[in-house]
């Protein structure tokens, strides 16, 4: 399952659309949702009496997908380190043990000769150390087929499978750009393994971003979505597939009326390449990004929601070569504004590597434009190792009497080569290291913890506690109420605004 915030898998809805053409393999059979095949039996827009005729036509093209997985786990010997250690051997104690696991999801046929679309996470090992051994596709008539994985793309969460059969019922992708908020939609899938389940709802929102990823621009729906619906189709009332169910927002793991589907127009070019066995390449700036919150926007002098902060510039990548710096706010890329609905990741990833594009940014309150040539985005697995979550606070708060070295409720010490090795900082890094944070301070509330490295305050380098104290005092005397810190943890950094105590 793929989660958003506290999410399990899900889907969403769309509106009336026209059919798009994928590069389908040869097959003479007519699609179940061929133009004109659904309209006559579809419920009237605005006041549907029944979806039964439409569902009867479409349901045969929706499939259940299951996997078997092999998981290797390391068994612990309960007698390890004792005179009885030998009794734990030979029963799995202290050695690797192989176990079996299964997963369930949904998908749909897009050709008469057995090409199936689903989510990548449906056919991916669910835990570390697991290997997917088999993938089984079960049709609506309960016939089962072993499937081959033709192609997958983790960034968009799409995958294409192939089963060996002919004359199969299938559906075509529609045009999700025609969907409107409020349109009726129908989702078909296999929640909790219950194949052929149908739910209906409306399009709740369009262009919804959940985690700011490269292909994070979903259709949101209130259709009932649960575990196992992932990978299933989202239909409009003309029977067009306008979305591929992907995620749900849920604090409990069950449906709460907020589901997300990958728009068909976003999926189409990716599926075209995956069906040909080609890999997906995306543009890459080579920066670590940070959202522009209200307090950060005020500190950087830009409108809230209009741009993304550059928290780190990767050496040797496109951004560094173009002169982009840490602390710049990128507001426009390739002549398109950076907004919450049109994120920087999305804009850059959708431009082919090697393309030369203009990037507009704000530096020290002034706008300027640089031109650069995009690199190639690394695999998601590699990028995941670079993620840094400042909210992951594992701090060990100190006694309040030791706090306040810089009047922010934190104690700091200059960075030394020995400390740099301990906290994983770059050998050339400079700054002050947090020794602890008062649990009642805004600094602790913002996630500052022991071992964090502060390199700048109000974008001015700091080397000692006195440097930090001086900047805080200057800010306070000029009427400022907060200090903008740049904080690094395990080599990754981001900006944080910390309130100055009264």
Automatic annotation (TrEMBL):
CDD domains associated with the record: cpPDZ1_DegP-like
Coiled-coil ranges from the UniProt annotation: none
InterPro entries named in the record: PDZ (IPR001478), PDZ_sf (IPR036034), Pept_S1C_Do (IPR011782), Peptidase_S1_PA (IPR009003), Peptidase_S1C (IPR001940)
Source organism, top-level taxon: Bacteria
EC number(s) given by UniProt: 3.4.21.107
PDZ domain ranges (all copies): 274-347
Molecular function GO labels: hydrolase activity
Signal sequence coordinates: 1-28
Class of enzymatic activity (EC top level): hydrolase
UniProt cross-references to SMART domains, sorted A to Z: PDZ
Keywords tagged on the record: Hydrolase, Protease, Repeat, Serine protease, Signal
Alphabetized NCBIfam families for the sequence: degP_htrA_DO
Protein family per UniProt: Belongs to the peptidase S1C family.
Protein name (database record): Do family serine endopeptidase
């Amino acid at each position: 399952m793929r989660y958003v915030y506290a999410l399990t898998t899900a889907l969403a809805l769309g509106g009336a659309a026209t059919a798009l053409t994928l590069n389908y393999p040869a097959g003479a059979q007519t699609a179940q949702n061929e133009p004109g095949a659904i309209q006559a039996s579809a419920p009237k827009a605005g006041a549907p009496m029944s979806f039964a005729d439409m569902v009867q036509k479409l349901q045969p093209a929706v499939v259940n997908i299951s996997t078997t997985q092999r998981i290797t786990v390391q068994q612990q010997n309960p007698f390890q380190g004792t005179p009885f250690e030998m009794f734990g051997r030979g029963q799995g104690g202290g050695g690797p043990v192989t176990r079996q696991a299964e997963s369930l999801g949904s998908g749909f046929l897009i050709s008469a000769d057995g090409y199936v679309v689903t989510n990548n996470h449906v056919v991916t090992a669910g835990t570390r150390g697991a290997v997917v051994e088999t993938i089984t596709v079960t049709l609506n008539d309960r016939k089962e087929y072993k499937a081959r994985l033709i192609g997958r793309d983790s960034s968009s969460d799409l995958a294409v499978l192939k089963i060996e059969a002919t004359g199969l019922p299938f559906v075509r992708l529609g045009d999700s750009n025609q969907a409107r908020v409020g349109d009726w939609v129908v989702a078909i899938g296999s929640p909790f393994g219950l194949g052929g389940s149908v739910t209906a709802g409306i399009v709740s929102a369009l262009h919804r971003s959940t985690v700011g990823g490269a292909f994070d621009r979903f259709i949101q729906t209130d259709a009932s979505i649960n575990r196992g619906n992932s990978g299933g189709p989202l239909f409009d009332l003309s029977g067009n597939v306008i979305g591929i169910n992907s995620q749900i927002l849920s604090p409990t793991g069950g449906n709460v009326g907020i589901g997300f589907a990958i728009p068909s127009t976003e999926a189409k070019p990716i599926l075209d390449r995956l069906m040909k066995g080609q890999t997906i390449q995306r543009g890459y700036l080579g920066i670590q990004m940070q959202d522009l919150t209200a307090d950060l926007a005020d500190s950087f002098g830009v409108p809230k929601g209009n741009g993304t902060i550059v928290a780190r510039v990767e050496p040797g990548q496109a951004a560094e070569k173009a002169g982009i710096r840490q602390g710049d706010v990128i507001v426009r890329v390739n002549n398109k504004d950076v907004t919450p609905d049109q994120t920087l990741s999305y804009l850059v990833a959708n431009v082919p590597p090697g393309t030369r594009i203009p990037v507009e940014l704000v530096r020290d309150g002034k706008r300027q434009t640089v031109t650069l040539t995009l690199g190639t985005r690394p695999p998601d697995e590699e990028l995941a190792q670079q993620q840094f979550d400042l909210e992951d606070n594992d701090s060990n708060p100190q006694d309040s009497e030791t706090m306040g070295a810089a009047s922010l409720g934190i104690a700091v010490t200059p960075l030394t080569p020995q400390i740099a090795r301990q906290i994983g900082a770059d050998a050339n890094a400079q700054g002050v290291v947090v020794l602890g944070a008062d649990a009642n301070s805004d600094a602790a509330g913002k996630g500052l913890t022991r071992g964090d490295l502060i390199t700048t305050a109000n974008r001015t380098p700091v080397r000692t506690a006195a440097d930090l104290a001086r900047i805080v005092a200057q800010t306070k005397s000029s009427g400022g109420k907060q200090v903008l810190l740049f904080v690094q943890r395990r080599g990754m950094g981001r900006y944080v605004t910390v309130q100055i105590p009264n």
